[in-house]
Design a protein that fits this description.
alpha/beta; Translation Initiation Factor IF3; five-stranded mixed sheet; three-stranded mixed sheet; 4 helices; globular; Methyltransferase FkbM domain-containing protein; SAM-dependent_MTases_sf; FkbM_mtfrase
Length: 191
């Protein structure tokens, strides 16, 4: 279960989510996709108890949807093997299908952390990427059996031509993605 975090998480019973804010933009919405059954169950339990407010305004709460599925470049049924345990079927969705099903007009922030499958997730987000303002993903060139073992960083970056992407250093520095060989997560902004 997730503990309260520095005043940014509040019990659901204390907050009411307003339908529309003053500018008419609607309630902020986040979609979390998790393939591992135990982690998905823990997240669903935490969502029933905690609410994430929008920015520093604790009166306007964020709607958070939890989806138990994997994400990739195509829709399918896949297999999940958690920590050497039994293999279980898991639905595989694309970011584009998740956005379409929820009728999201845009995606402000897309964060991808799929332990090596990030290039495939980006392929399945071609339409959604047109509205993404901020993108982060992991580069795992060390996982040779994962997608990063077959897909080159250059081809991924070529597919992100509408973004300016940099490695975010630990000291507040930014490095052009193709000029740095360290394992970091690129931060990209739509231009």
């Amino acid at each position: 279960m997730l503990p309260p975090m520095a005043g940014f998480v509040s019990p659901l019973s204390e907050k009411k989510v307003p339908p529309v804010d003053a500018q008419g933009a609607g309630t902020p919405r986040a979609v979390c996709v998790e393939a591992m059954p135990k982690t998905a169950a823990a997240l669903k339990t935490a969502l029933a108890k905690y609410l994430l407010p929008h920015s520093n305004d604790t009166e306007l709460a964020t709607q958070l949807d939890m989806v138990h599925a994997a994400v990739s470049n195509e829709e399918a049924k896949g297999m999940d093997q958690s920590e050497g345990g039994p293999t279980r079927p898991v639905l595989v969705r694309t970011v584009d299908s998740l956005v379409k099903k929820r009728a999201l007009p845009k995606v402000d922030i897309l964060i991808i952390d799929t332990e090596g499958a990030d290039p495939l997730v980006l392929q399945g987000a071609a339409d959604a990427l047109k509205s993404v303002r901020h993108l982060e993903f992991e580069v795992h060139r060390d996982l040779v059996k994962a997608a990063w073992g077959q897909i080159k960083l250059r081809s991924v970056m070529d597919g992100l031509a509408d973004f300016d992407c940099y490695w975010a250093g630990n000291q507040g520095s930014l490095y052009p993605v193709m000029e740095c060989k360290r394992r970091l997560s690129p931060a990209c902004c739509h231009v």
